[in-house]
Amino acid sequence: MSVITLDELKQQLDAGAPLTLVEVLAPHAYRKAHLPGAINLPILGLRRMAEAMLPDKRATIVVYCQNARCGSSAKAARILAELGYTDVREFRDGKEAWIAAGYPIEGETAPAASLASPVARRMP
Could you say which of 1, 39, 40, 68 would form a disulfide bridge with 77 (CB–CB 3.0 to 4.6 Å)? Predict the structure, then answer.
């Protein structure tokens, strides 16, 4: 598992890099706000749902949670590695850093302008 910084993630998304963003927080937190294009795989159901939601074990997967104090993204990265995923990266600073940087979000709290600026691509 490797760590991806805020700047690296933004650059890769802007460049259209093929990656899957995975928010590992609870569904209510995901619905409220998440990075554009992210899917929700809560940490509590990750082992059970991973293969159905992430069928390509060689795909680049970026996991994130709320912030650097939240340990769920590191735990999720370890679980995915144990399940055989080979390119898992942890966005350790999480959703709070993304929002603090002024980058667009999706969800119930997203401003309309944010929704019009897709920066993330989710690969099947």
Answer: 1
- The pLDDT tens digits of the residues spanning 38-69 come to 999 999 999 999 999 999 999 999 999 999 99
**Residue 108 burial (CB count, 10 A):** 10
- Alpha-carbon distance of 12 to 14, in angstroms, equals 5
Domain that holds residue 73: 2-115
Can you tell me the distance from the alpha carbon of 95 to that of 83, in angstroms, rounded to the nearest whole number?
25
Position 39: which residue type? Answer: I
Does some domain include residue 121? Answer: no
Residue 114 reports pLDDT greater than 60: no
CB atoms within 10 A of CB 83: 14
CA distance 51 to 59: 12
**How far, CA to CA in Å, does 11 sit from each of 27, 54, 92, 103?**
27, 23, 16, 12
The model carries a pTM of 0.86
